[in-house]
């Protein structure tokens, strides 16, 4: 299950599950599809991720692409070492840097 946490700035941060495989990816995909239809920025916290599969990374890349096309903020500036390792293994180290900075 995907969880949103409110910050003091009233921004909602999407807390990713520790294991993003199988049904967890399906849940994330549906949640991000719904979120992409709003004006809210997509702010991700991946600090608890210990396992992430390629499909989950593809879902996040797709969400980022949708945000760019809608001129919405997409940011993931709290990534676990396991999350960063998976991204780096797939040749996406540059995406890690981009996500930390946000796209807008």
UniProtKB/TrEMBL annotation:
Coiled coil: none annotated. InterPro entries: MlaB-like_STAS, MlaB_ABC_Transporter, STAS_dom, STAS_dom_sf. It comes from the Bacteria. It holds the Pfam family STAS_2. Residues 13-104 form the STAS domain. This is Sulfate transporter/antisigma-factor antagonist STAS. It comes from Hirschia baltica (strain ATCC 49814 / DSM 5838 / IFAM 1418).
């Amino acid at each position: 299950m995907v969880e949103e946490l409110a910050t003091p700035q009233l921004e909602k941060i999407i807390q990713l599950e520790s294991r993003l495989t199988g049904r967890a990816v399906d849940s994330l995909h549906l949640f991000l599809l719904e979120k992409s239809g709003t004006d809210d920025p997509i702010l991700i916290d991946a600090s608890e991720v210990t396992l992430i599969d390629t499909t989950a990374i593809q879902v996040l890349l797709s969400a980022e692409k949708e945000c760019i096309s809608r001129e919405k903020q997409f940011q993931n500036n709290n990534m676990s070492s396991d999350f960063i390792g998976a991204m780096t293994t797939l040749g996406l180290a540059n995406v890690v840097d981009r996500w930390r900075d946000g796209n807008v």
